[in-house]
TrEMBL record:
Xref: SUPFAM superfamilies: Neurotransmitter-gated ion-channel transmembrane pore (SSF90112), Nicotinic receptor ligand binding domain-like (SSF63712)
Recorded topology in the membrane: Multi-pass membrane protein
Protein's job: Forms serotonin (5-hydroxytryptamine/5-HT3)-activated cation-selective channel complexes, which when activated cause fast, depolarizing responses in neurons.
Pfam families named among the record's database cross-references: Neur_chan_LBD, Neur_chan_memb
Alphabetized UniProt keyword annotations: Cell membrane, Disulfide bond, Glycoprotein, Ion channel, Ion transport, Ligand-gated ion channel, Membrane, Postsynaptic cell membrane, Receptor, Signal, Synapse, Transmembrane, Transmembrane helix, Transport
Name of the protein: 5-hydroxytryptamine receptor 3A
Subcellular compartments: Postsynaptic cell membrane
GO cellular component: postsynaptic membrane
Neurotransmitter-gated ion-channel transmembrane domain segment(s): 125-249, 557-686
UniProt entry tagged with the keyword Flavoprotein: no
PANTHER family per the UniProt record, alphabetical: NEUROTRANSMITTER GATED ION CHANNEL (PTHR18945)
Record organism: Dicentrarchus labrax (European seabass)
Reactions performed catalytically: Ca(2+)(in) = Ca(2+)(out); Na(+)(in) = Na(+)(out); K(+)(in) = K(+)(out)
Amino acid sequence: MDENTAPPVPYVYLYSNGMVHDAQPVKVVSSCNLDIYTFPFDIQNCTFTFNSYIHLAMDIMIFLGKSAENITKKSKNVMTTMGEWELLDITSHKDKYGHDDGQYIDELSFHIRVRRRATLYVVNLLIPSCFLITVDLFSFLLPPQTVDRSSFKMTLILGYTVFLLIMNDLLPITGNTIPLINVFFSLCLALMVTSLLETIFITNLLSGSADFSPLPRWVRVFVLQFLGCLVCLPQKTKEPKGSDIKFSTAMAQRKADEGPPGEMMLVAEGKAVQELRSLGRDLQAIRLQVEQQLCGSKSSKEWIQCCLLKVKPSKVLFIFISVLMYASCSSIMLNCSQPDPPSLLDALRPVFTLSSIRPVMNMSTPTNVSIDFILFGILGVDEKAQLLTTYIWQKLEWRNDFIGWDPDQCGSSRITIPRKLLWVPDVVINEFMEKNSAPFVPYSYVYSDGLVQDEQPVKVVSSCRLDIYTFPFDVQNCSLSFNSYLHRMAAMQIFPTIPVEEILKFSQEVMATMGEWELIGLSVKKLQLPASDGEPYEELRFFVTVRRRATLYVVNLLIPSCFLITVDLLSFLLPPKSIDRSLFKMTLILGYTVFLLIMNDLLPITGETIPLMNVFLSLCLGMMVASLLETILITNLLCGSAHYPPIPRWVRLFVLHFLGRLVGLPQKPRDLEDTVFQNPAAQDIKVSFLVAEDNQAPGPKGPLDEDKALQELRSLGKDLQALHNQLKKQTSGSQSSEEWIQ
C-alpha cells in the first residue's frame, strides 16, 4: 500500500550459469483484512502475494525458493522485534490469476499467522473493569437512609469514563466489526447506569412512599407473599395505623379525664393532673409525627418491601452481563532477422526514437485509449480535508501505429518493453491531490498488431465533496475523472474497456480492505467538456458510491448518550429535600463532557456542514444544563419559599387550576390549622384559656409549693406546644410555600 522506504541495495550477484541473485530489504505496508472480534485474544492471518504485475505465466513463472517451514523457523530465529504480536507460522501456496482468454499470471501467496499478546489488555482493561463493576454491585450494601448512594454511583460512572479515556489508545477502532471487548465495556457502562436508575427508584420510594396511595391488594399478595417467599423476603407484621394510635390515645385520655368520682374532690391534685395530661397530649403528637417521619406508614413500608424485592442486585445485574475498442489504422511492419526476442527488440529500436510524438500515421487520426480499473481498497476518508484515499489497479490500452510484426517471423506475438521507451498517453485523474506512492511497475506489454497494454497500481488521494449531515448513516458519492491533460478530442478519445457492472463486481470480490466503508455502487459517465481554446476534450468520469458502517458509532456514541440523558431525566425522582440533586446533575454533566472527550476522535470535523450527530450531542448537553438550572430553581423554592410573599391570585388560577389540570396535578386543600398556628398569638390564646379554666376551678388554694409546680408545668406545656407547632410547620409548610412548590 505504500512505497518501500528500506535502505536500497544497489548490487546483484551474477553467476557463470546465468543465474542472478538479488537480495534486498523491504518495508512492507500491506493491506490485511483484520478480524478483531475476539480482541485482545485475536489471531490474524495476513497474506503476501508475489506475482508479476504485467507478465503472464508463459513469460515469468514463480517458484518457492525454500519450504514454508524453513522460512518460519528462520524468521523466528532472526526476528528482533515483534511488539505485542507473536509469529505463529507461515504457509504458502501457488495460485493462478486468470484472464478471459485462458492466459494467467503465476502467483505465490504466503499466509502469515500472528497472535496478539493479551496480557497488557487483560491487566489494563479487563481486570479494572471487573473491579469497578464489582464495586458497583457491592454498593447496594450501603444503607440508603444514611448514605447518598446515587452520588456514589454517579461518581463511580464518572471514574469509569475517565478510565476509558485513559485506556482509549489501547482499543482498536475499525468499522468492519465491533470487538467483543467494546461490547463488554458498553455492557459494564449500561449495568452501572441501570444500577444508578435502580438506586434513584429506591431513594424515591424510601423518601416519598409516605405520600403514595395504599399498595393495591393484588400487588401485596403477588409481590410480598408469593415472590417474597421465593426470594426469602422476611414478612413484616402488621402495625396499627397512626389514626388508630391517636384514637386509642384519645380514648384513654378521655377515660383518664373522667376518672373515678372520688378523685374529683382532690382539686389541687386535679390541676396538676390536667397540666400533665395536656403535656402528655403534646408529647404524644410529637412522638407520632416523628415516628411517621422515621418509620413511614404501612403503605410506605409495603412499597419499600416491593422495591427491595425488585432490586435484588445479584439477580438482576448478573443476568445482563460484519471488449476492447480499436481504431482502424495502418501500421509499419517490422522485420526480424531471427525469431527470437533480441532480434525483435533490435527491430523495435527505430520505434523507440519516435516515443516523443503521438503514434499515428496521420495527425488527424485520433488515438483511442481504453480505460478501466479495479478498486482494490478504500483506505480512508478525511472529512476535514475533504479527501478520499483509495487503491486501484489501473489499466490503459491504446494502439501504436508505428509498431507491427509477423509473429511467425519474430517468434512471439508480444514483448514487454520499459514504459519509458514508449509513448504513453497523458491520462490523469483530475481529483488527484498527492503523488502516487504505490509501487512502481516499469514495464508495458506490446503486441504484434501494435496494441499497447499498460497496467500499474495507483494510490489515489482524491478530492471529494463529502456530505456528512447524516453522519454516521451517510452515503458518499465521489468521482474519479480520467481525461487527457493536454490532448483535445480530435487527438485523443477515451472509452471504457469493460462494462462498469463487471468493474463493480470484480472490485467487491478482490477488495482487501475497506475499514469503516462499504462499496455499494459504481457508475460511469462520458462527458465532452470545452477547453480554454474552445475545442472540446473527452472525460470519462467514474462515480464511486461508498456507505459508512454505522455500528461503531451507534454503540459508542448514540446508546451511551441516550443512557446518560435518561439518567438525567429520571434523576428528578430523587427527593430534593434529602438528596443534593444539583451536585448529582453537576457530576453527570462532568461525566458527559469526559465521555465526549473520549469519543472526540470518532466525530468528523469539517467546516462546511454540521452533522446531525453533533447537534444531537449538543442538544443532550443543553438539556442537562437546563435540567441543572431547573434543579437549582426547585431547590430554591423548596428551601426559601416560606419567606416568599403569597402567590398572586392570577398566577394561582392560571398555573395551579388551569395548567395543573392539564398535567394532572392534584389540588391540595387549604390547611386552616396551619394558618391558625402560624399566628404567634394562637399559643397565648390557648394558654390563657387553660389558665382561665384553672382559675375557675372550685376548691381551696393549695400551698405555695403546689402553685409553683403548676406554673412550671404550664411553662413546660407552652414550650412543648410551640415545639409541636414548629415541627408541624417544618413538615407541612405554610399554605403560601405549598402553592409556590406546586
